[in-house]
Amino acid sequence: MKTTIELNDKLVQETMQLSHIHTPEDLIRTALYEFLRKLKKRELAGMRGAIQWEGNLDQMRTSVDE
Known about the structure:
The protein has a domain at 14-47. It is built from three helices and no strands. By secondary structure, it is mainly alpha-helical. The chain has helices spanning 9-19, 24-46, 57-62. Helices cover 61% and strands 0% of the residues. The radius of gyration is 21 Å and the shape is elongated. The mean pLDDT is 91. This is Type II toxin-antitoxin system VapB family antitoxin. It comes from Larkinella terrae. It holds the Pfam family VapB_antitoxin.
């Protein structure tokens, strides 16, 4: 998708400098990816306790595939 937006120059420059991202396009792409990742983590956290899990976690941690 191609779009035109106005961004705060100081905010963009400071973020690019600290993140070592070299173009505004890459900065926006990274920001969108990180925002989506945060939203998905929040959604997963909201599912806590919604799924019944059965198994022996200690056994799974010590089992070795042969």
